[in-house]
Write a structure and sequence with these properties.
about 300 residues; alpha/beta; Rossmann fold; Hypothetical Protein Yjia, Chain: A,domain 2; 2 domains; 7-stranded parallel sheet; 6-stranded antiparallel sheet; 11 helices; globular
């Protein structure tokens, strides 16, 4: 029996996790889904957001499934099959992952797995900006079974038409569906039975280990100190959104621990009932060297607490 695997791609902050959570809410409790999540940095924040969902989450951190971690993907899938015996596996890639090498890895296990579909999420609000800085975003829009147009609410008809024109220019044939504030019917996403052409030469893309360093730089904050909630959020809000594509993590405040999730300046704050020993936040974007010292001063932390990841 082949277990279906659905791969979700999309640039940083496109809304992949929100869409997946909304899909999970539609599935019967008896249907066992396991998610393999890949993210930059070392902070496991999305598994905290999913802890109330009927799902097992495995995170592969500080690397990318399509290059640095591609050799470990097969091992992770093997472990999932043995440990959980799932009915369906979801793979949420990092925001800068090429989908073809991941599809190839799944295809190598076709005796037990089948690629049900690759779904690409487009952040309509910010697509015009990140399309110009991310070659990977273009690849994601081209190699996919389904394109979901997300975060279009609040845009004018003219603005949305321009985004759709850009997406059609990249991929004229793949179906495109607008989400409703991150909601899409599971019947439209699962059961695609992918028709994507998978060949071994596409695996050579995985050798481009440097493409993430060109597109996304990582800055991480790890500190045992307590922060003032309003002051911390004020600092985050004032950061330039086209340098800081994504900010996510857990912050210990004088009141309680909060989970922050910021995409291109839009900040979501969730109160957490869990206690953490440290504040752990990942900043993803560009020009991190330029912002490093000013952020250390703003957060009142030293060089060991806030640093750039290699």
């Amino acid at each position: 029996m082949q277990i279906p695997v659905t791969v979700f791609t999309g640039f940083l902050g496109a809304g992949k996790t929100t869409i997946i959570i909304n899909l999970l809410k539609q599935m019967p409790k008896s249907y066992k889904i396991v998610m393999l999540k890949n993210e930059f940095g070392n902070v496991e924040v999305d598994s905290k957001l999913m802890q109330d969902s009927n799902i097992e989450v495995t995170e592969m951190l500080n690397g990318c499934l399509c290059c640095i971690l591609v050799g470990k993907l097969g091992n992770a899938l093997e472990e999932i099959l043995e440990k959980y015996t799932p009915d369906h596996i979801l793979i949420e890639t990092s925001g800068s992952a090429y989908p073809a090498p991941i599809a190839w890895e799944i295809n190598k296990m076709k005796d037990r797995l089948k690629l049900d579909g690759i779904v690409t999420i487009i952040d309509a609000k910010n697509f015009a900006g990140y399309r110009d800085i991310s070659y990977t975003a273009k690849i994601q829009a081209q190699y996919t079974d389904l394109i979901l147009i997300n975060k279009h609410e609040g845009m004018s008809e003219q603005e949305l038409d321009k985004v759709l024109d850009d997406v059609y220019e990249l991929n004229a044939t793949t179906p495109k569906i607008k989400t409703d504030k991150g909601y899409i019917s599971a019947n439209l996403v699962f059961g695609l039975n992918s028709k994507l052409f998978i060949t071994q030469h596409q695996e050579s893309v995985s050798e481009d280990h440097d493409h993430h360093h060109k597109e996304v730089e990582i800055l991480e904050l790890h500190s045992p100190k307590m922060f003032d909630k309003e002051e911390f959020l004020k600092i985050i809000k004032e950061l330039p959104k086209w340098d800081f594509y994504r900010i996510k993590g857990m912050v210990r405040t004088n009141d309680k621990t909060i989970l922050i999730n910021c995409a291109f300046g839009d900040i979501e704050v969730i109160d957490s009932n869990e206690q953490y020993n440290e504040t752990a936040v990942t900043f993803m974007g560009k020009n991190m060297n330029y912002h490093l010292q000013e952020l250390r001063q703003a957060f009142h932390v030293d060089e060991n607490e806030l640093k750039i990841l290699d």
